[in-house]
Structures are given as C-alpha cells and as structure tokens.
C-alpha cells in the first residue's frame, strides 16, 4: 500500500414560472425518482444510446428512438414495448442491455457494466419514472436558455431573512416564537393543537431524540416528580451534555455523508481506515463544533490553519468525507474512474450541504435548476486538482488504487491495531520478500515457457501470475501498517491538494472522449450575487479552501436553511421542506417558509451551534405536544403538515437494537477503538471474516453506530428496519411496517439473547413477581403498566410457566427453568411490541 506523509505545515427554463410548470408536468414523479433518473438513467441514454436512437440521429436504427418518454415506452419496429413500467422482463430495451438475446444486443460493441444494467432494472421496476416530454421547439430555436436573474427568484436561492413572529388569535398557548409561527399556520387552516404530552411520554421522546437510548426508570421518576417550570430545560440539558448525544446526532450526519467502510459496486473493496471519519463526526457533535467550521473541515481541513498536531490530524481526517464514497474499482479506464469519483464528490457535497443536485449537470445543463454544465465543470476542476486518498492495494479486479495520509505519530490519534513485536515486523517483511520472489519466479517461468513455445498465454497462466502478485501486494499492505518498532502507523482516508491545479474541460454529454472548452475552477453562478466573481484565483491551489468558505458563509442562501431543516425533521418527524436533500425547483416547497428562515438566521446568529438549535426547538410547545388523534384536524390535514400534533415516529434500526441491549443491561457504552474492518484488512477474506467473526458474537454489544457498514452487505438487524442505501445521501430514512420485521423480532437469535438478558435483569430486581413485571414496563416503555395491563400480566404469570413446565418434571430446577423461559418470553413480547419501537 502506498502511503503519503503529510508534513506539519434542455427545454425547461429554470426561472420561477418554469419551475411551477415543471412541477405540474411531473407531479407524479417523486424527487427521489427524479434524482435517480437524472443521475443513473438519462446520462447512459445520452452517452450510449442517442447516437443511433434519437430524433437527431442520421439514421434511426430499428425505428427505435429513446430521447422522449413516449418513444421509449413505444419501442421500435419489433413491435415490442421499449419499456414496460414495472416489468423489466417485458421491456425490450432492458433485454437488449443484458445481451442474453443474440439477435438484440445494445450497445452492440461493448456491453454496459452490470451496475448500469441493474440501475435500469431498478428504474423500470419502480415504474420507469421519466420527466422527458416530446420535443417542442421554443422561441430560442430549440436551445435551452437559463436566465440566471430569473433563476435567482426561486425561494431557496434568496438569502434568508429573520421575520418577526406572526400575530395569533389563541392566547396563552405559545411558549416560544417558534410556537407563534406554528400556531399561526394552524389557525390559517382552521386547525387547533392537541393537548400536551404527559411527562413519561415527553422524557422518553427527549431521551431517544438526544441520546438514542431509553430513559432510566430513575430519570423518569425524577422528571415526573419535578413540578418546576425549569424541569424540561434541565432534562434537555442533561441529555445534551451526555456522552451519548454525540453518538446519536453523528448517526444522522453519517446518513447524509453516505458513510460506509467499503467501496460497494462490483468489487466491494474494504476501506479499513474509514472509521476515523466516523469518530471525527461523533467528536464534533459531542463538542458542539460550530456547523460552519464542521463543513469547512470536511471540504478543506488539510488547508485550514491548525492549533497543534492533534488539531491538524483531526482536520485532515475530516476530509475523509470526500474519500469514503462508493467507487468502481474494476474500471479499466483511470480517467473515467477519476471523473466518476469527482462526480460522486460533487453529488455528495451539494446534496448534503446545499440541498441541491448539482451532479445532474454532468452531461447537460440541469433540466430544472438554473445550474449549467459550465458550473459543474468549474467545480469538477476543484476536485480534479485534489488527490483523493482512499487506501487500497492492487489486486485482481481492483485496477484503481490509492495511498493514505499518514498522520503524525504524536498527534494523539487512536490506533486501529495493537502494537506488535519487532520480531513480528521482521516476520511480516520476510513473508513479503517470499511472496514477492514467488510472484517474480512465476512470471519468469511462464515467460520462459512461452519463449520455448511450450505453453500459450492462457487464463490459467494469467491467474497464476496475478494470484502470486496479489498475495505479495496483500502482505506489503500489512507491512506498511507498522513502524520498525511495531507501533501501528496512524493512517487516514482523505484529500490533499495536487502540486499543480487543473482546470477541467466541459465534457460533451459527459463523455471523457469528447472534451470541449476548458472552464476555470469556480463556484455555482446562481448562488452568487450578480456580478460577483465566480472563478478561483490561481494563488489558491485547488480551490477547495475557497469552496469551503463559500459554502459555510452566512451569505450562502442554502447552507443554514438546509441544516435547520434537517434538525427540525429529526425532532418533529417531518421537515419544513419535505425533501431535505433537494431545495431546488423539483424539491417541495416549505410548509412554513418564515419559520424556516427564522430558524436559519437564529442558527447563524447563535454561532452555528447545533445544540442551541436543538434546545430551542425542544423548548417549544409544538415539540412538547402529544400525538393524540383529532378527527376534525385529521380531515383537514391528514399528513400533519401544520403540526397540530406530534408525529408518531418509528425508531431507527440502531435505536431499536441499542434499546434492546439497554433494557437488558448488556449495552457496552465504551466507544469502539477502530473497527473490525481495520482488523480484517482489505481483501475478500477480510470481508468474509467480519461477518463470521465478532459481529455475530454476543460479545459485540457496543452501540450500533460502531457496527461496520459494508456497502451492499448491511447486517440484517439494520436492513430489516430500513437502514438507508449507504452509497447515497439520505436525510430522511424510509419507514416501513412489513412482516419481516415481526418475524425478526420473534425468531432472530440476537433478539432472543436480548430477551434472556432482560429476563436475567428482572430476576435480580428486588420485590415480588408482579413488581418485577411492572419494572419491565418501566425499563421498556418508561411508564408503569395500566390496571388492565397489570391484570393481563397476572393472568399470564399464573398460566404460562406451568404450560412450559409440562413434561419437564416437578423438580425445583425444572420449575426455575420454566419460570425463566416464561419471563424471557414476556420480555421478548415487550421488545416486539409497537410501543417499544415507536415514540408517541
């Protein structure tokens, strides 16, 4: 493994009127579907199909055109539909892509990558959402013209202004200015707020929202018994100051940052050093790092001023944000690989920080937002002028490797591996020399055979040489992990400036083989004031530092709004802007625009403090409302768009798992040092060992944020409860309610082990059986059982142990085993209940 040492030094105008038209035309397509089409389908059609199958083709082959939705559905001369929404098997375009039919193979010269074909199948099965309409010539002769002045009128591209709270009719309900905005919205729609949440419900909500864990029975009792007006603020501050807060809120950002510890795609190479970025995010939220600084460090931490070695190392680790994305390591064209990495970086940066889909302008001007292809390649030059270091060694199917950044050994960074002896270092070096020699000998021997014409160059010879060389590279990677004295090197994924900056040409249709005019490195025009310089000065290196300060500026109209909306979504259950990753023309409009601006400006005025923003929202009566049903309100606002009640929310997968361990008293709250991926290494054998090793053992009882995230191989506990695609920016997880979740909670050994631990904890609790069972309710739900529940518990306890004991004999041991089995079954029923998994 190479290591670098870092020294300590189309036709839709994008104005407002066009935006409204686009929304009307594509009302049936969700923003997520639109983004999937623009990123994964349209570019392939443009690059690989339009030459022979578009209205502009010199000769349309097979009578098939694919440049409009209608023509794509219709198909060509064969009479078969080109695309049948919902059914890939009845779609001739998909069949041609698979090359399974020898008479119909498209593109004809080279089959598309498996990942691209899989994306087309996914697109068709989701209903083939397609925003393209029949081509109509407009007043400009068919050429799409973006009017930047008109485009800047879009609400999200105008600077937020702090509005005063509106007047309301209902007196004495609003506690804060936030409440006045919410109440005004309700009153305008003829709605009224439901009553406040009771104390046990409220503290459970606060505890999970801030720590991802249930409150302890003692915490609930203390809060319920505290009648003072300051009680809510005290409990909020207690959890904000908790060590667990950083882990909880870091998880939200890691969803947005598409955090994972492998490349995904066809090869799925492990990234043993990705965990440092995870820990950086946890520590940043724990210390309430100002959000603007947080963003600057992730884009250009290596270029920022630093205060000592530790601070410098942390800032370098922050740039791992740009390095941890998915990558197609088996791509043989390194130029294409580099452009794909840059595209992924632009996509992740723009969606997560700006709430825009800038990557949609790779092949053409953005179809909906006022973003040009020139804007895209101005940004691309910035990232092409930076070296992305993700740390993989060369092996079969991994044609694209990179080094890592070596952090100063005195920077106080956690080591991923234990120290080894000097003898073990020598042994590793010896193993490398042997493997290297074996690879060289295999190559010489096969070359000699070919010279003597005794053997032709076949696949077996190639695999023999390649296997020996890969083994040598694998051992070399292990050698590079340690200093001579056996101390592990502190290595990080990240980004550094290249020695020579690079301005990118515009790539016609996004094709690296069709470069156009060179574009100076720069910023996105529509987000800059009219007349403001867009280009990066030659003295500023890659331009990442300029980009970082531009994104994190108070003058940027999007940055504070996007984060304020993310925080509101996580606390209230739905965003003021329902599409948290898309504030563009195809994103949904804010339900309370003045409230969003109020939160954004207040956020900036408070030093970009996420904790202060959270506290302000939680102190509102809107947050403290109950989730009760009101028929009249529901009839007028079934989606609770205007927050007349608190949304009921299903806990995320991590919170469900952590809560199961917490109620059983087995949750290990000690942060994990490193990651199992770091100990497994990069190779395929390492991938297998992770899931056969510590993750499946009872001993791995750490918080779920420390579970390794391997793209396309997410652990069942997480995937069954809607863990997001770790290759995509995701600000709002899906929530499903499907049979597989119930089956998991009934039958999975990890759930059964958690129930056994829960039961064992109850056995140790003093008191009668009835008191222990009541205590189980306090642990699981944060409340005492009702009178009806107590009766049901009593009936259960009288019958169930005896039923289990039948056939087991009358010995004391058999009776105790039966009682424990009954108690465990009772605990499992609590864990499997909806109340355990939901916040009211």
From TrEMBL:
Superkingdom of origin organism: Bacteria
Domain DUF1549 residue range list: 177-386
Pfam families from the UniProt entry: PSCyt1, PSCyt2, PSD1
Regions annotated as coiled coil: 425-452
InterPro entries associated with the record: Cyt_c_Planctomycete-type, DUF1549, DUF1553
Keyword Heme: no
Protein name, UniProt field: PSD1 and planctomycete cytochrome C domain-containing protein
Coiled coil among keywords: yes
Entry keywords, A to Z: Coiled coil, Signal
Location of the Cytochrome C Planctomycete-type domain: 49-109
Signal sequence extent: 1-18
DUF1553 domain mapped to chain residues: 543-796
């Amino acid at each position: 493994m190479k290591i670098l040492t870092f020294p300590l030094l189309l036709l839709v105008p994008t104005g407002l009127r066009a935006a409204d038209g686009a929304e009307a035309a594509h009302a049936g397509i969700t923003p997520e579907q639109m983004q999937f089409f623009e990123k994964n389908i349209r570019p392939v059609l443009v690059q690989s199909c339009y030459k022979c199958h578009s209205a502009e083709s010199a000769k349309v082959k097979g009578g098939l055109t694919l440049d409009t939705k209608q023509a794509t559905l219709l198909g060509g001369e064969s009479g078969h539909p080109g695309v049948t929404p919902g059914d890939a098997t009845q779609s001739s375009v998909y069949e041609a892509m698979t090359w399974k039919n020898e008479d119909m193979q498209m593109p004809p010269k080279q089959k598309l990558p498996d990942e691209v074909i899989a994306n087309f199948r996914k697109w068709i099965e989701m209903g083939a959402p397609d925003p393209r309409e029949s081509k109509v010539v407009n007043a400009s002769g068919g050429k799409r013209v973006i009017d930047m002045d008109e485009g800047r009128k879009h609400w999200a591209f105008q600077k937020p202004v702090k509005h005063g709270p509106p007047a309301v009719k209902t007196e004495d309900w609003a506690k804060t200015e936030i409440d006045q905005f919410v109440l005004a919205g309700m009153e305008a729609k003829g709605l009224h707020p439901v009553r406040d949440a009771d104390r046990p419900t409220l503290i459970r909500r606060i505890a999970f929202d801030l720590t991802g864990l249930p409150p302890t029975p003692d915490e609930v009792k203390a809060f319920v018994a505290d009648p003072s007006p300051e009680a809510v603020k005290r409990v909020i501050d207690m959890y904000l100051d908790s060590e667990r807060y950083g882990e909880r809120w870091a998880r939200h950002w890691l969803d947005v940052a598409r955090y994972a510890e492998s490349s995904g795609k066809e090869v799925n190479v492990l990234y043993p050093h990705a965990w440092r970025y995870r820990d950086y995010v946890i520590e940043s939220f724990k210390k309430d790092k100002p959000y603007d600084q947080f963003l600057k460090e992730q884009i250009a931490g290596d270029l920022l001023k630093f205060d000592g070695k530790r601070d410098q190392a942390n800032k370098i680790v922050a740039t791992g944000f740009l390095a941890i994305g998915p990558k197609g390591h088996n791509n043989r064209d390194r130029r294409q690989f580099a452009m794909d990495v840059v595209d992924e970086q632009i996509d992740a940066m723009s969606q997560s920080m700006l709430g825009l889909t800038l990557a949609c302008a790779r092949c053409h001007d953005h179809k909906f937002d006022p973003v040009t292809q020139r804007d895209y390649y101005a940004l691309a030059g910035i990232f092409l002028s930076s070296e992305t270091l993700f740390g993989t060694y060369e092996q079969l199917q991994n044609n694209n490797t990179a080094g890592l950044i070596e952090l100063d050994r005195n920077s106080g960074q956690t080591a991923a591996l234990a120290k080894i002896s000097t003898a073990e270092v020598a042994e590793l070096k010896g193993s490398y020399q042997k493997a290297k020699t074996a690879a060289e000998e295999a190559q010489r021997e096969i070359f000699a055979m070919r010279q003597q014409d005794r053997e032709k160059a076949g696949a077996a010879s190639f695999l023999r040489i390649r296997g020996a060389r890969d083994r040598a590279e694998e051992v070399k990677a292990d050698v590079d992990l340690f200093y001579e004295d056996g101390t592990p090197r502190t290595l990080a994924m990240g980004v550094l400036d290249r020695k020579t900056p690079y301005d990118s040409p515009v790539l016609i249709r996004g094709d690296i083989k069709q470069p156009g005019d060179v574009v100076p490195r720069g910023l996105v025009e529509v987000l800059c004031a009219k007349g403001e310089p867009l280009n990066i000065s030659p003295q500023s290196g890659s331009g990442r530092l300029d980009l970082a300060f531009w994104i994190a500026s108070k003058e940027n109209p999007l940055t504070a709004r996007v984060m304020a909306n993310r925080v509101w979504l996580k606390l209230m259950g739905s965003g003021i802007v329902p599409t948290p990753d898309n504030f563009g023309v195809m994103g949904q409009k804010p339900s309370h625009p003045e409230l969003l601006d109020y939160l954004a400006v207040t956020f900036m005025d408070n030093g970009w403090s996420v904790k202060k923003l959270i506290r302000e929202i939680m102190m509102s009566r809107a947050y403290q409302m109950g989730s009760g049903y009101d028929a009249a309100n529901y009839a007028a606002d079934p989606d609770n768009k205007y927050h007349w009640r608190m949304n009921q929310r299903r806990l995320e997968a991590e919170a469900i798992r952590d809560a199961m361990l917490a109620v059983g008293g087995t949750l290990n709250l000690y942060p994990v040092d490193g990651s199992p991926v770091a100990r497994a290494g990069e190779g395929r054998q390492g991938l297998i060992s992770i899931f056969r090793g510590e993750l499946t053992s009872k001993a791995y009882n750490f918080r779920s944020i420390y579970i390794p995230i391997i793209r396309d191989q997410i652990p069942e506990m997480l995937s069954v409860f809607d863990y997001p695609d770790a290759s995509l920016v995701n600000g709002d997880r899906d929530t499903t309610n499907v049979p597989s979740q119930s089956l998991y909670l009934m039958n999975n050994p990890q759930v059964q082990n958690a129930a056994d631990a829960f039961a064992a904890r109850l056995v140790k609790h003093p008191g009668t059986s009835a008191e222990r069972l009541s205590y189980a309710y306090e642990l699981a739900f944060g409340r005492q059982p009702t009178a009806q529940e107590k009766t049901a518990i009593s009936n259960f306890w009288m019958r169930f142990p005896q039923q289990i004991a039948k056939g087991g004999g009358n010995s004391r041991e058999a009776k105790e085993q039966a009682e424990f089995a009954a108690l465990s079954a009772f605990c499992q029923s609590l864990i499997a209940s909806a109340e355990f998994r939901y916040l009211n």
